[in-house]
């Protein structure tokens, strides 16, 4: 009896040992030239996934495409109708572990407008798959879960992505066959006095899942302000800060990346580290503006916080059907920016759509109505000369949050857009021969149906932000710019992948046209295209080589991989979706 048990125990020990060995050398991954995709022999077994789920306390989630209720044997008409109704809203995508906002990367691989429930016979044959979306996600709520996810993806040779809000226009929070670290629930806000060689003063440690408006609300309760984006739901500690990050306080305190004090990270070797100017300083430098999800996974960021106080603001809107007058007014605005950008703290954001000009907000922290009126008076005089009748608003709010809620929080964003970008230098606008080249491109963009242009101006020169040359990875072209130029092409919900690809090609064409008139310039990579061929020079510029070196040091095997990411050359995406060694 005794012997039998002992044999049985020995057998069990042997079995466990076999499993352990099998797990330690999984699927010959070191020799595989591609990250495994579902269906590949090397793809982790159900047992391996179940073990991971166990390790992360049952927080492993299988990715489900947004349009799934419209497909398969369980197709559900009411749920499908709901998916159609909310297809253009941001909110369901923000709350989802794998689905993303960008139409292009969400792809048409499971559109709720196609499939068996469609009344249109030609659309009924469509099928549903995850496309570029992650296969699994871990609902990360602590460092241990992030470490487990990083180790699993690395050891099983599968792609690893980080998904926060899914706002990314470049598809960097998606990845076919990947495991996503879903950071949305890492919500925490701690306010304290920070003391370091570089900075002493109020600070906030913000969890990686924090979103802009929530962060502003938390800071407001402490009598503080923190730089964040304009869109209320963009992540405050994710892709926004890691690629620079502009918002309405940027002309006063600098970009998001100019306000970072430290990051709490997990590196791809599974280590939980701090990166600051004194610890892992190279990593801190890279994550402060050098691109997201490329060097490490961020769990929290500590940012400078600033004493709150009154914020003055203004808005100007007009409709002008006469193109000559309209474009004269737009050029006048560009010229006025040359002066407005020299006013400390003065930030503006303008939207142009065919025949409509909207200064959505001018923001002057700690300013008065008189100062804003004086600043905008020369532009109003130009409008009068052109007999353009504009609607104006002028305010002073007691706090930044109230200003934000009045001007920015209500702007409605929908997800059916393709976006491009260029940083516009002041010398282009200053030159009477070169400014018309810019206007010509604006005209071409707005002559295309369903487009909009955004002129987002903030002076983030070194003199303004207190940063010395190269002390973070924000590119010089941004420091020296007069404004950030974004433009959007709106697509129809029924757009096919070919339609979306054509939109992307057109948006890229304008990026190339803008490049031609701003030689040596750059782009704000967060709002630019993923497949623009000058991405190394224009998105990273003088920082590229150093960033690629830091990538090599902290993630030599490209466990994290993005396009366009510094040092991503070791792997490339193949047409069949495999990410393979080059
Ligand atoms: C409607 C809309 C409005 C916008 N408004 C602004 C604006 O006002 N100002 C501005 O500067 N930008 C703006 N953007 C651009 C925005 O900053 C980028 O899309 C940014 O990448 C979003 O970051 P996220 O973390 O919210 O989104 P996600 O798509 O979830 O992530 C974006 C990138 O960051 C990575 N990432 C996210 N979290 C982490 C983490 N914890 N660790 C490591 N990597 C991480 C992801 O892997 C991905 O590469 C806007 C975008 C949209 C769609
Ligand atoms: C591992 O994979 C490589 C190529 O993919 C193959 O040549 C090699 O034989 C494999 N090794 C083992 C132990 O299976
Ligand atoms: C992970 O485990 C939890 C709890 O047991 C379960 O609800 C969930 O479905 C599992 N996830 C996956 C992908 O199997
Ligand atoms: C659907 O697919 C079948 C088989 O591939 C094909 O015969 C049929 O014509 C298709 N129908 C439509 C409407 O495309
Ligand atoms: C996106 O959709 C198109 C068309 O359906 C398909 O050819 C392409 O492979 C898809 N991309 C991904 C990553 O699934
Ligand atoms: C993710 O985790 C959070 C925090 O525990 C929980 O509230 C939420 O319901 C989880 N989401 C999913 C989809 O499992
Ligand atoms: C921090 O201070 C050191 C020493 O003064 C300086 O060299 C460095 O550039 C500073 N870094 C940042 C990010 O401010
Ligand atoms: C200017 O616009 C205002 C408000 O839109 C309107 O009341 C007024 O009549 C307009 N004046 C002229 C001269 O068009
Ligand atoms: C930014 O402001 C500084 C002074 O603070 C000024 O020298 C510089 O010209 C301004 N930059 C732009 C682009 O207006
Ligand atoms: C797409 O987005 C725009 C706003 O960006 C919205 O007005 C429009 O209704 C949406 N849908 C279509 C079909 O264009």
Helices, strands, pairings?
Elements: H1 2-24, H2 46-55, E1 60-62, H3 77-85, H4 91-94, H5 103-106, H6 121-124, E2 136-139, H7 143-155, E3 160-163, E4 179-182, E5 189-195, E6 200-207, H8 212-221, E7 224-225, H9 239-242, H10 250-253, E8 260-266, E9 272-275, H11 281-287, E10 297-304, E11 306-307, E12 311-319, H12 323-340, E13 347-353, E14 356-365, H13 369-385, E15 391-397, H14 400-407, E16 417-424, H15 426-430, H16 435-447, E17 451-457, H17 462-465, H18 476-479, E18 483-490, H19 497-517, H20 535-540, H21 544-554, E19 571-573, E20 579-581
Parallel strand pairs: 2-4, 3-4
Antiparallel strand pairs: 1-2, 5-6, 6-10, 7-11, 8-9, 8-10, 12-14, 12-15, 13-14, 13-17, 16-18, 17-18, 19-20
Helix pairs in contact: 12-13, 16-19
The protein binds flavin-adenine dinucleotide and 2-acetamido-2-deoxy-beta-D-glucopyranose (9 copies).
Pfam families: BBE (PF08031), FAD_binding_4 (PF01565)
Domain FAD-binding PCMH-type: 130-308
Organism: Heterodermia speciosa
How would you explain this protein's 3D organization?
With 582 residues, the protein is an alpha+beta fold. The chain is 34% helix and 20% strand. The strands form five sheets. A seven-stranded antiparallel β-sheet has the order 15-12-14-13-17-18-16. Helix 12 packs antiparallel against helix 13 and helix 16 (435-447) runs antiparallel to helix 19 (497-517). The N and C termini lie far apart (59 Å). The model is unreliable at 1-27 (pLDDT under 50). The structure holds flavin-adenine dinucleotide and 2-acetamido-2-deoxy-beta-D-glucopyranose (9 copies). One 2-acetamido-2-deoxy-beta-D-glucopyranose binds next to helix 17. Residues 1-24 form the signal peptide. InterPro entries: BBE, FAD-bd_PCMH, FAD-bd_PCMH-like_sf, FAD-bd_PCMH_sub2, FAD-linked_Oxidoreductases_BP, Oxid_FAD_bind_N. Residues 130-308 form the FAD-binding PCMH-type domain.
């Amino acid at each position: 009896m005794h012997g039998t048990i002992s044999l049985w125990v020995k057998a069990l020990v042997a079995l466990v040992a076999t499993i352990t060995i099998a797990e330690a050398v999984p699927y010959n991954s070191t020799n595989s030239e591609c990250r495994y995709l579902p269906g590949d022999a090397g793809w982790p077994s159900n047992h391996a996934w179940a073990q991971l789920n166990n390790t992360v306390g049952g927080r492993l989630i299988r990715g489900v495409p947004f349009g799934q209720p419209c497909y398969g044997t369980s197709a559900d008409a009411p749920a499908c109708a709901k998916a159609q109704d909310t297809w253009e809203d941001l909110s369901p995508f923000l709350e989802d572990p794998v689905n993303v906002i960008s139409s292009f990367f969400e792809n048409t691989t499971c559109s709720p407008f196609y499939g068996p429930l469609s009344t249109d016979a030609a659309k009924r044959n469509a099928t549903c798959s995850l496309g570029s979306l992650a296969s699994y996600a871990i609902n990360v709520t602590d460092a241990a879960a992030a470490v487990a996810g990083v180790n699993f993806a690395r050891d099983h040779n599968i792609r690893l992505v980080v998904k926060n809000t899914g706002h990314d226009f470049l598809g960097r929070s998606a990845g076919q066959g990947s495991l996503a670290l879903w950071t949305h629930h890492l919500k925490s806000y701690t306010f304290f006095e920070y003391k370091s060689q570089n900075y002493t003063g109020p600070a906030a440690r913000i969890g990686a899942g924090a979103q802009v408006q929530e962060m502003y609300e938390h800071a407001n309760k402490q009598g503080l302000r923190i730089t964040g984006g304009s869109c209320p739901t963009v992540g405050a500690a994710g892709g926004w800060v890691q690629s620079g990050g502009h918002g309405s306080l940027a002309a006063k305190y600098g970009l998001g990346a100019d306000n970072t004090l430290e990051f709490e990270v997990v590196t791809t070797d599974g280590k939980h580290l701090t990166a600051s100017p004194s610890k892992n300083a190279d990593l801190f430098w890279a994550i402060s503006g050098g691109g997201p999800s490329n060097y490490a996974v961020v769990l929290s960021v500590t940012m400078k916080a600033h004493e709150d106080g009154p914020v003055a603001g203004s808005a100007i809107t007009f409709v002008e059907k006469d193109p000559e007058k309209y474009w004269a007014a737009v050029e006048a605005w560009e010229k006025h920016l040359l002066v407005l950008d020299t006013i400390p703290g003065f930030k503006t954001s303008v939207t142009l759509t065919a025949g409509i000009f909207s200064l959505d907000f001018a923001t002057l922290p700690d300013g008065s109505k008189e100062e804003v009126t004086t600043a905008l008076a020369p532009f109003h005089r130009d409008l009068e000369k052109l007999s353009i009748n504009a609607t104006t608003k002028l305010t002073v709010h007691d706090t930044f949050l109230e200003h934000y809620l009045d001007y920015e929080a209500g702007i409605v964003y929908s997800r059916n857009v393709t976006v491009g970008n260029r940083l516009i230098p002041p010398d282009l606008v200053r030159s009477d021969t070169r400014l018309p080249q810019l206007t010509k491109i604006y005209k071409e963009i707005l002559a295309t149906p369903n487009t909009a242009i955004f002129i987002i101006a903030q002076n983030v020169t070194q003199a303004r932000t207190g940063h010395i040359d190269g002390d973070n990875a924000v590119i010089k072209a941004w420091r020296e710019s007069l404004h950030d130029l974004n433009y959007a092409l709106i697509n129809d919900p029924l757009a096919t992948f070919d339609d979306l690809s054509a939109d992307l090609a057109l948006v890229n064409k304008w990026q190339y046209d803008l490049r031609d008139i701003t030689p040596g310039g750059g782009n704000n990579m967060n709002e630019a295209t993923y497949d623009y061929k000058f991405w190394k020079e224009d998105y990273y510029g003088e920082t590229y080589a150093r960033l690629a070196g830091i990538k090599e040091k902290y993630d030599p095997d490209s466990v994290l991989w993005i396009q366009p990411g510094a040092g991503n050359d070791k792997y490339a995406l193949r047409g069949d979706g495999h990410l393979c060694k080059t």
